[in-house]
Amino acid sequence: MGAWRISRARVLTRRAAAIEALGSATVLCTDKTGTLTENRMSVVELRLKNGEIFRPRKASGAKMPEDFHGLVEFGLLASEREPFDPMERAFHDLAREQLGETEHLSGPQWKLVHTYGLRPGLLAMSHVWQSTDARQDFVIAAKGAPEAIADLCHLNAPDVAALTRSMDAMAAEGLRVLGVEDFVTGKEVEQLTNGELAVRVRTATVFARIMPEQKLRVVNALEANGAIVAMTGDGVNDAPSLKSSAHGIAMGGRGTDVAREASSIVLLDDDFGSIVNRTARPPHLR
Fold first, then answer.
1. Which of 22, 42, 117, 251 is most buried (most C-beta within 10 Å)?
2. Cβ–Cβ under 8 Å, residues 105 and 139
3. Is pLDDT above 60 for 254?
4. Cα–Cα distance, 233 to 243 (Å, whole number)
């Protein structure tokens, strides 16, 4: 009966025990990027070193100033030619809109010869391109966390300070913030012992730029404090924490097969509100 009732809310139960235990969850962990959003992105603001700003959405059809072309070009070069990542799709959409009638570096005269992927020690990815017109010229394009790019580019102190000011200004104009009392970065998580992390998660509510193994540590730390954790996710990298938590909840529409297999509950229509609806109802209605 329980499985039938929650199925009417487009929630699939893969393990029967999850029906009885879901209402007892005391902490709900969620991955922001694809779970809380529609997993689509668009470029809304570009900033240059000199502080100049261009906002495509507010340009009212006006073409992007020439000074910004290089920024968009290298955004393309740091992305896949056939993008699947929402951020990379956003770069391609902007380039088609603003550079469609211009010459830019990502044309057929450039061949991708090597890729440096994202890794725990460096939150950036780089593409090495070589000219195909026998000049043997190389171009390296990278994108990632601003502090990682600053390190790769060996920026001096004044440039780093200018970059930080731009980062803070853009973050202040980000998505609507409902409430944050503390936050912890992945680097901080890496430096904490299990005992120290268990203390830290008692007050922290946001964990930023964390790797899959760090997500798992956060879930384990919450449970070490006696919390009953419901963890949501949709990607392959969410699988360890989905499996470890008391209630693993996967997105059924855009979630990966790995995430769904690791979970006890699947949201068939990716409606995050379904979780709260099922956990907040009185016991006699569950």
1. 251
2. yes
3. yes
4. 11
- Neighbour tally for 109: CB within 10 Å: 14
Q: In terms of residues, how long is the chain?
A: 286
Q: Which residue segments constitute the domains of the chain, with CATH numbers given?
A: 2-38+179-285 (3.40.50.1000), 46-172 (3.40.1110)
Residue type, 79: S
Residue 195 Rama label (left phi>0; alpha psi -120 to 50; beta): alpha
DSSP state of 68: G
Q: What is the pLDDT of residue 284?
A: 38
Q: Where are the alpha helices (DSSP H) in 126-256?
A: 146-152, 157-172, 186-191, 194-200, 212-224, 239-244
The rounded distance, in Å, linking the Cα atoms of 104 and 64 is: 14
Mean pLDDT of 108-130: 80
* DSSP code per residue over 163-175: HHHHHHHHHHTSS
Question: In whole angstroms, what is the distance from residue 209 CA to residue 124 CA?
Answer: 11
CB of 263 closer than 8 Å to CB of 238: no
279 pLDDT more than 60: no
